[in-house]
Amino acid sequence: MIQIFTTGGTIDKVYFDANSQFEIGDTLLPELLAESNVHEGYEVAGLMRKDSLEITDSDRELIVQAVGGCNHERVLITHGTDSMAKTAEALKPVAGERTIVLTGAMQPARMRRSDAVFNVGFAWAALKLLPAGVYIAMNGEVFEAGKVRKNLGAQRFEASS
Hints:
Blueprint: E1 2-8, E2 13-16, E3 21-24, H1 29-35, E4 42-50, H2 57-69, E5 74-78, H3 84-95, E6 99-103, H4 116-129, E7 133-138, E8 141-144, E9 148-151, E10 156-159
Parallel strand pairs: 1-4, 1-5, 5-6, 6-7
Antiparallel strand pairs: 2-3, 7-8, 9-10
């Protein structure tokens, strides 16, 4: 069984035309998994609905406590990309024998040209194949926590030293 925690981020953003802005909506994760023919073997729990730029250290502690308190060996977390690396780093002390994978999207899942479906499927596979540890799985690449950064200019993640 895989535990999935959602925290918001671009992957769950909804565009509201009336006020011309994006807001975090209900997660589409079960729908995204169903599109990939994954219908069981997971539980979803929503921890928050925040843009990752708004995630505070106390929010991060809530994520760490939720992961540390769950009984599953495999944990998938959807998270906004701007502070994903910081949250991955915070999760390292509670990894133990768990495999923890964070993923998200550069474009909302509700948009036609989103990387969300690919990233969720890729993260699902990575979660099942990787050894215990904390990882970020984005756009066909896997990075260890503490060895990754988001390149804002290129809009992608890359290894850091």
